[in-house]
């Protein structure tokens, strides 16, 4: 994806036989100038998402996803993917800060970073976290966040939508590959299967 930023072109006309120059006007026409200085700032904002349809009630999934339960169960079920979690502060509410080490399937080495819970919407079943330091930002991301949403599809059906939202400077397309959702997708599948197996006796489905 190309980014077209706003560029300011300064047109300089040089008088013959004189070193003096004067700015005539702003222009975007390359045929009208002898020298051009262009400045452009462009940041890419992107997101990758994965959706998993489940036959688990949204309210049951949200009990896990809305706080620390998500990373704790993720680590319990898939310790080779989410290799370590450390709660730095908080109880799972907004403002909670955790340090995670994750090895997405297909990656050769794990990534450790610290993230903060910045949004928990118990009405619409949405949770958002934002990386505040660590290796994921050292890769070159200006912003790297995770959005987890449980979409209610009926009494016994829901969709787990897992998204990585990120921002980086134009000219770094290789970062798109580092913003995959594979680890979130395998977590969603494992958690849905776990709840089907262990919560079936309590659910009315």
Automatic annotation (TrEMBL):
Task: State the compartments where it is located.
Answer: Nucleus
- Similarity comment: Belongs to the BetVI family.
- This protein is called Bet v I/Major latex protein domain-containing protein
Q: Where is the Bet v I/Major latex protein domain?
A: 50-170
- Taxonomic superkingdom: Eukaryota
Q: Which GO terms describe its molecular function?
A: abscisic acid binding; protein phosphatase inhibitor activity; signaling receptor activity
> GO cellular-component terms in the record?
cytoplasm; nucleus
GO annotation terms (biological process): abscisic acid-activated signaling pathway; defense response
Q: Name the InterPro entries for this protein.
A: Bet_v_I/MLP, Plant_def-hormone_signal, START-like_dom_sf
Q: What is its main location?
A: nucleus
Q: What's the encoding gene here?
A: gb14510
- Species of origin reads Eleusine coracana subsp. coracana
């Amino acid at each position: 994806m190309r980014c077209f930023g706003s560029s300011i072109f300064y047109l300089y006309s040089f008088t013959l036989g004189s070193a003096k120059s004067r700015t005539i006007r702003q222009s975007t026409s390359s045929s009208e100038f002898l020298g051009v200085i262009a400045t452009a700032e462009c940041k890419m904002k992107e997101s990758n998402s994965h959706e998993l349809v489940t036959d688990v009630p949204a309210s049951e999934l949200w009990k896990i996803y809305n706080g620390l339960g998500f990373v704790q169960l993720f680590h319990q079920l898939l310790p080779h993917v989410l290799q370590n979690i450390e709660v730095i502060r908080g109880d799972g509410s907004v403002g909670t800060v955790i340090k995670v080490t994750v090895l997405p399937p297909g990656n050769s080495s794990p990534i450790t970073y610290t993230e903060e819970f910045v949004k928990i919407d118990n009405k619409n079943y949405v949770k958002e976290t934002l990386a505040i330091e660590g290796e994921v930002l050292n890769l070159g991301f200006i912003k790297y966040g995770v959005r987890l949403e449980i979409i209610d599809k009926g009494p016994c059906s829901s969709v787990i939508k897992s998204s990585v939202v990120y921002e980086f400077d134009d000219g770094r397309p290789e970062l798109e590959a580092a913003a995959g959702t594979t680890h979130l997708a395998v977590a969603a599948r494992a958690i849905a299967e776990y709840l089907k197996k262990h919560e079936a006796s309590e659910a009315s489905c």
